[in-house]
Design a protein that fits this description.
Layout (H helix, E strand, L loop, with lengths): L2 E4 L3 H12 L7 E4 L3 H11 L2 E3 L4 H4 L3 E4 L6 H8 L7 E4 L6 H7 L6 E5 L9 E7 L5 H12 L2 E5 L4 H11 L1 H18 L4 H21 L4 H7 L6 H11 L2 H24 L2
Helix pairs in contact: 7-12, 8-9
The chain binds NADP nicotinamide-adenine-dinucleotide phosphate.
The site of NADP nicotinamide-adenine-dinucleotide phosphate has 25 residues, from helix 1.
């Protein structure tokens, strides 16, 4: 399978590292990138072919990964429109619907949309994938293999679920960082030094996340197991419940989903 990236920035770089790590050959990966410095970095770091524009050679791929910023996607699609034959177009641009991509590509049907998240940068991402009806099983599997190179994948049945994934796992790392900040602040207020506060907060999130992933128990059971009646954890949880923290958090994630839909509507207007 040959993969060409249009846009060779952060996310493309992570995917390229992931693919090479999974045994892809440098001969089978290419990238179109307008910035010379980025082209040089990609060629030196990964040894792949890089192109300044959408040449025939760059288009010689089974999958074209659209990895430019969302506001650049329409122009990229317009340029790509006449050059497609049978490639699967895999867009990782946040907030742009496959129906709009298809329209910008003169009605092209082989489109897969992916919503990865930043832990992909260290191979620990999770990506929601949605395929339009013109995509075959084989093409879906090929698109999934690209995202599998940087973590887990989940297929979505409807495109509107991509907005939910954007709110949950796309924006999710920021929520986790926010809670890490809060736990660190609490540690400092309790008299611990900065370095200790940071290590305690980071390792608590890392360890609890790993424990939850590796356990067969759900999160509520794991929480109950560390919450003895009348104990310290219960004092904290009771306080959170009184403040309806869970409701507040659910509302916050819903606000993100609403914004994802609004942004998709705005991008799709043009
Ligand atoms: N980073 C994440 O964690 C993450 C998560 C989910 C989704 N995404 C999506 O992934 C996409 C890429 O994000 P990123 O962080 O990797 O962006 P990025 O670092 O800005 O990379 C995009 C690169 O493409 C270049 N470019 C712009 N127009 C081009 C064209 N016509 N042909 C070739 N190259 C072109 C850009 O150059 P200029 O800088 O000159 O514009 C830039 O070097 C975005 O749409 C984003 O929504 C990212």
């Amino acid at each position: 399978m040959k993969v060409s990236f249009i846009g060779g920035g952060n996310m493309a770089g992570s995917l390229i590292s992931g693919l090479l790590g999974k045994g892809f050959s440098t001969r089978d990966i290419g990238a179109v990138e307008i910035r010379e410095a980025v082209r040089k970095r990609l060629a030196e770091k990964h040894g792949i072919s890089v192109y300044p524009g959408m040449s025939d050679q760059a288009m010689r791929a089974d999958i074209l990964v659209l990895a430019v910023k969302p506001q650049q996607l329409k122009a990229v699609c317009m340029e790509l429109a006449g050059k497609l034959n049978e490639q699967t177009v895999l867009s990782i641009a946040a907030g742009i619907r496959s129906t709009d991509i298809s329209r910008w590509l003169n009605g092209y049907g082989r489109i897969v949309r992916a919503m990865p998240n930043t832990p992909a940068l260290i191979g620990a991402g999770i990506t929601g994938l949605y395929a339009s009806t013109g995509v075959s099983e084989k093409e879906r599997a090929a698109a999934e293999a690209v995202l599998k190179a940087v973590g887990e994948t989940i297929w979505l049945k409807t495109e509107s679920e991509v907005d939910a994934v954007t709110a949950v796992s796309g924006s999710g790392p920021a929520y986790v960082f926010y809670f890490i900040e809060a736990l660190q602040a609490a540690a400092r207020e309790l008299g611990l030094e900065d370095a200790a506060a940071r290590r305690l907060a980071l390792h608590t999130f890392h360890g609890a996340g790993r424990l939850a992933l590796e356990s067969t128990e759900d999160a509520a059971t794991l929480r109950a197991q560390v919450t003895s009646p009348g104990g310290t954890t219960q004092a904290a949880i009771l306080h959170m419940e009184e403040q309806e923290m869970k409701r507040l958090f659910v509302n916050a994630v819903q606000a993100a989903a609403k914004r994802a839909k609004e942004l998709a509507d705005e991008f799709g207007k043009c």
